[in-house]
Amino acid sequence: MAHYPIEPFKIKMVEPIKMLSREQRIQKIKQAKYNLFNIIAEDIFIDLLTDSGTSAMSDSQWAGIMRGDESYAGSRSYLHFERSIKNIFGYKNVIPTHQGRAAEALLFSTILKPGDYVPSNIHFDTTEGNIRNNGGIPVNCVIDEGLDPASTFPFKGNVDIDKLQKLVDEVGLDNIPIAMITITNNSGGGQPVSLENIKQVYKFWKNHNVPLFIDACRYAENAYFIKLREKGYENTSVKDIAKEIFAHADGATMSAKKDALVNIGGFITMRDSELAKRMISRLIITEGFRTYGGMSGRDLEAVAIGLQEGLNEDYLKYRIEQTAYLGESLLEQGIPIVQPPGGHAIYLDARSILPNISQEFFPGQALSISLYIEGGIRSAEIGGLMFAYIDEKTGKTIYPELELVRLAIPRRVYTRSHLDFVVQTVKKVMDNRHMLKGLRITYQPKLLRHFTVELEEIS
Ligand SMILES: *Cc1c(COP(=O)(O)O)cnc(C)c1O
Fold it and tell me: How confident is the model at residue 149 (pLDDT cuts 50, 70, 90)?
């Protein structure tokens, strides 16, 4: 039997949820054009769409909300926010943004020229979107193990240095103004990156004079995995591991909606003060003044507190073990998932669950929809619908290597019985999988299509 951790908190406030009937759910998904983003939250029973901005805040954070200083310039809450970030990340410049993608938009609009390449292990979808939106080309250089759902390699988020070298040889350093690493690697199954790898990647780019930025959304979960799995860090505190991570990069973007345990917020932080200055000019046009950047004082306060709570090792132990519990319980039922379980989510391997639906008919989306019909569960497709694109040279559609359905776990929100219900629901869908139908797109926008795409079932 899979192990369930004891929650290191008790519940002070509750939010009711309820399940619609099966007929209602079928009706709702049809009305939503088979896009789960179009279903209203009250019509969802268990919402595993994302772990982004869905955390339960602590009593300290709520107290901080009351203490928020709403001054336009130089508020006390901003100073607290800045102090909290510098204490962990160690860079001189901190720029608040309303969420992670705004930090990415600032970074890439400041640093990219059309035709530039941006390597990473695997870029997240908003990162890809922001790179493309500024004329750049995102390149994924994760190790091969990171693309094999069955590999149990402990650091499947690692960057393949040979792939970086190949990219440099092919496109030249003049066309690589910045490099990135995503920790944990969200689009590759929430898998961690080792400190050894971060150090190697930093050294590689430093030798070429290319700045390395970390997409740090889940840096605390990544640091905890390093403590668990990487030799030599067993006795190092997670906070010191985090500090060592950021000592081996030039800056970081972060969505505070993840490991800072808040519902909105983000920032970008970096060594280079000249670069920060250029970004602040843009920030003032698009987000707001440099001491609030699109956030209220109370939100800045909640981030300042949440960042430190996110590094608490009792919390992280619970967090990582809860995710592992869901993964191991699914495996016990014979359901194929990306192995080993990542930090914030379990990824169902839709390609092996639905081998009869070819990738052009979106097996991941078909699986995701059936989880809603069967149990009112909302999940996210991370496959062809999210990542396929048309190659401009050949006109061919390029599909991603992985076809996954993500069950993201909101932080401090669901209990063991919620997760047990999820496992039972996936099992039911698995037992009736021959009934599932593929889907066809009836409407799509140009970028980030999964948010607004409309589909129909193929009969
Ligand atoms: C969520 C996320 C982002 C974008 O952050 P938002 O706050 O949603 O804009 C970027 N990178 C990764 C890895 C993420 O998980």
Answer: confident
Q: pLDDT per residue over 311-335, tens digit each?
A: 999 999 999 999 999 999 999 999 9
**Residue of the CA atom closest to atom 8 of ligand 1:** 100
pLDDT value for 450: 86
**Which of 328, 317, 418 lies closest to 6, judged by CA?**
317
Contact (Cβ atoms closer than 8 angstroms) between residue 210 and residue 241: no
Do 44 and 83 have their domain in common? no
Based on the fold, state whether residues 394 and 298 are members of the same structural domain. Answer: no
What average pLDDT does this structure show over 131-146? 96
Q: Please tell me if the CB atom of residue 257 comes closer than 6 angstroms to any atom of ligand 1.
A: yes
Domain boundary among 258, 274, 309: 309
Q: What is the pLDDT of residue 150?
A: 84
Residues 33 and 105 in one domain: no
Could you give the 3-state DSSP secondary structure of residue 390?
A: strand
* Ligand 1 atom 5 nearest Cα: 100
CATH number at residue 31: 3.90.1150.10
* 259: DSSP letter: T
Ligand 1 centroid to residue 437 C-alpha, Å = 31
**415 contacts: CB under 8 Å, gap ≥ 6:** 7
Nearest to 81 by CA among 367, 290, 345: 290
Instruction: Give CA–CA dist 243/246, Å, rounded.
Output: 5
For residue 97, what are its two tokens?
Answer: 């943004």
Helix (H) or strand (E) holding 346: strand 345-349
Q: For 100-118, what is the mean pLDDT?
A: 97
Residue of 50, 128, 215 with the most ligand 1 atoms within 8 Å of its CB, for mutation: 215
Please give the pLDDT value at position 337. Answer: 93
Q: How far is the CA of 230 from the centre of ligand 1 (A)?
A: 26
207 CB neighbour count, 10 Å cutoff: 8
Mutate to test the pocket of ligand 1, among 126, 127, 215, 218 (most ligand atoms within 8 A of CB): 126
Q: Are residues 129 and 255 in the same domain?
A: yes
Distance separating alpha carbons of residues 299 and 278, to the nearest angstrom: 25
By the 8 A CB rule, do 347 and 122 touch?
no
pLDDT tens readout for residues 63-85: 999 999 999 999 999 999 999 99
**Does any ligand 1 atom lie closer than 6 A to the CB of residue 217?**
yes
The pair phi, psi for residue 99, each rounded to 5°, is: -160, -175
Q: Rounded mean pLDDT of 298-319?
A: 98
